[in-house]
Each structure stands twice: as structure tokens, then as C-alpha cells.
Amino acid sequence: xxxxxxxxxxxxxxxxxxxxxxxxxxxxxxxxxxxxxxxxxxxxxxxxxxxxxxxxxxxxxxxxxxxxxxxxxxxxxxxxxxxxxxxxxxxxxxxxxxxxxxxxxxxxxxxxxxxxxxxxxxxxxxxxxxxxxxxxxxxxxxxxxxxxxxxxxxxxxxxxxxxxxxxxxxxxxxxxxxxxxxxxxxxxxxxxxxxxxxxxxxxxxxxxxxxxxxxxxxxxxxxxxxxxxxxxxxxxxxxxxxxxxxxxxxxxxxxxxxxxxxxxxxxxxxxxxxxxxxxxxxxxxxxxxxxxxxxxxxxxxxxxxxxxxxxxxxxxxxxxxxxxxxxx
Length: 328
Prior knowledge:
Elements (H helix, E strand, L loop, with lengths): L3 H7 L4 H7 L16 H14 L5 H7 L8 H7 L4 H11 L7 E8 L2 E8 L7 H20 L7 E3 L9 H7 L3 E2 L5 E6 L12 H18 L3 H12 L7 H7 L4 H9 L5 H16 L7 H7 L5 H12 L3 H13 L1
Parallel strand pairs: 3-4
Antiparallel strand pairs: 1-2, 2-5, 3-5
């Protein structure tokens, strides 16, 4: 979603209002490390296309993105020895940034196909997701092969838009809609072309670093869930049903995933609230009532009971003791 808020604002929309309308903290996209459920990202793109009266909003967003949005994975890709290795690296580590879709590289005769597939059926905003990602793939290939690179054709798996001029102007090659997949097709010989900026030494360092990151986060569903809960808490809509919806699963499946990690939704939510409150309670400029709202509590009494269970004192008593002890 890199650049989403800026593009919405440039086109006369209100990005914070759109984000809030999806039940998230309006500042949810301010931190690039925040995790956005795939279905919610697609929905935001769809809302933005309507808000800005720009049916090709996703295409515009994809045009202005580059490998930098992938962090270390993007750097690794740019330092791969050849185009085939670069695409393989991107596909190999794509799960660190995107869950809900996959990329695929295949070759048939003289043409290679670099495709993108959404794996969540019936998702709202799928067309915008495809627009973003095919534009990303185009920019990715230009970076690897040079500004003179052009695909042989571009396919989209949805019907041709009423106005396809923005697509023609950007890709400048034959466009085909209602196809089996969304993909770039290009001369297979490009796969063996050396990349323009490969550094084997830096590539090795990046591979080792990403391997460590992957090991830390492999199968870490609770960590993903914590990121979503952190964004939902201030909205007062942090329910198990809401979270299940954002992860495109029913609540029973959500509970099953958490049980595999020896935890529950309630335990994760309680631990996150305790952690966040511990970070903010010593800020006297933050009223206790406001803190309760930020944690998603519907009443001050419910927050007070939880606080006493966590820390052994009521919030105001804790602050009084803390300020007194800090002043001695």
C-alpha cells in the first residue's frame, strides 16, 4: 500500500476517512511496517477508485512503486546475477510481504510468462490489486533489463475497462483482457540476461539476513494478528468476528490457527492491551479515559478492572505512586 495515502490526497480524496471507513485507525498506513490483511488492502483500493473517480487507481499506484518498498528483499532481487534468478528470488520471498496471492514464472517456447494470482476467491477490489501488481512487475523488469525493455503483451484476468487508454499509455504494447491470468509476456531470452547492478558479495549478506528474518517469522500467525489488533483497537471494533473477516476466514478457523500456537484470541488481545498500556500510562498528558478508549474498552470501569488485574492498582493510583516515586 506504499504511496496510497499520498495518491488519494493528490486526486482530491480523503485517505484517512477511507481507512477509517474500513474500521482501522486512520493512521494505520503511516507506519510501513504495519500489517494490512490482504482483503482489506484490496477493499481500500476499490474505495479509493470510487472516491477519486479514477477506475485505474491501482495502475497509478503501481506505476509509482519500485523495489524499495520490499526492503531487503528488493535489494536482494536487484543484486541477483541474472533476470531469472531475480524473479525466482522475488517469488521465493514474496510471502514475507504478501499473503493471499502468489507470483509465478513459466516459459513456453519463445515467450516467458510472469504472472500474478490472487488466492482468495471473490475478493472485492481484485481488479485494483492486479493493476498495482502488474504495473509493479513492469517496473521491476525495467529495473533489471533497462529502460528499453518492453513486454510482448500484457494480460489481465478481468473484463476490459470502459477506458483502457491509461493502460495503453503506460504499457505501450498489446493488451488482452478476460484472459486466464494477469501476466506480462516477454522474450524468453531476457531470463538469461545479466542484471545491471549485481553485487555477489552484497547478495550473500542479504541472503543471510533475509534467511534469519524468514526463520523468525515463518508460520508466525500470532505476530500477524497482533499487528492487525494494534490497528483495530482504537476503532472500538476489535472483535473476533471483525478480525476473522479481515483475514478472510471464519472464527472457528481463526481459533484453530491460534490453538496451533498454544494461544487464544482473548489471550493475545489481553497481552497486547497490557503491553500498550504499560508504554503509555506514565504519560501524564494522556487522560486515563482517553487511554481506555484507545484500548477499545466500552467503559472506564472495564478498563479499571483490567488495569488492576495487570498491575495491582487502579490507573490513577498507579500514576500517583509512579510520579511520587520518580520525584523522590
